[in-house]
Amino acid sequence: MKTKKITSSMEDYLEAIFNLGQEKNFVRVKDIARKMGVKMPTVTSMLKNLRDRGFVHYEKYEFVELTESGNEVGKDMSSRHELLFTFLKDILKIDLVTADEDACRMEHALSAATLESLIDFMEFLQTCPRVGMEWIDRFEEFRNSGKDIKKFMERAIGSSCSVKKDLI
């Protein structure tokens, strides 16, 4: 079996199969089609391609199973998606639909090093006693101020934010 570059579409299918497998004991072509929003022949075609590359066990009219390598890719894509979705939703306060769509696009493009730094950044924001979730709230206030730093700083000084007045 020749190793060919895996496409983002293939990664999406492996992620969908992985997630469906987490929800139920078996994965059917129609489950994948429903989750991906495509027709069953489209899924069948992709499954044959994924099977030929060693990512799934698939035979016509049978359940779909991920191979070890398919499971690794599916799990990785699912983890990436969840991390990016959480960052967009909880830190940047992006609406759920947009955050999900953007996370889906971003999960294919970011390097492992960038994702690792993003994980570290999120952990830092959520656990650092001097930064923590208050920092995220301040960021949201800044965005709501129209990014007018003077207006934001005046409001922040009036609250409990520890910002120096000479910065205004």
Could you give the topology of this structure?
Layout: H1 8-23, H2 29-36, H3 40-52, E1 56-57, E2 65-66, H4 68-91, H5 96-106, H6 112-127, H7 132-144, H8 149-158
Antiparallel strand pairs: 1-2
Radius of gyration: 22 Å
Order of helices and strands: HHHEEHHHHH
CATH superfamily annotation of the largest domain: Winged helix-like DNA-binding domain superfamily/Winged helix DNA-binding domain
* Overall tally of domains: 2
Mean pLDDT: 84
User: Hey, roughly how much beta strand do the residues contain?
Assistant: under 5%
* Residues in helix, %: 55-70%
Structural features, described:
The protein is an all-alpha fold. It folds into two domains: 1-111, Orthogonal Bundle (Arc Repressor Mutant, subunit A), CATH 1.10.10.10; 128-168. It contains eight helices and two strands, in the order H-H-H-E-E-H-H-H-H-H. A two-stranded antiparallel sheet has the order 1-2. Strand 1 (56-57) and strand 2 form a beta hairpin. Helix 1 (8-23) crosses helix 4. The longest helix is centred in the middle third of the chain and has 24 residues, at 68-91. It is elongated and about 65 Å long. It starts with 7 loop residues before the first helix and ends in a 10-residue tail after the last helix. Mean pLDDT is 84; it is low at 160-168.
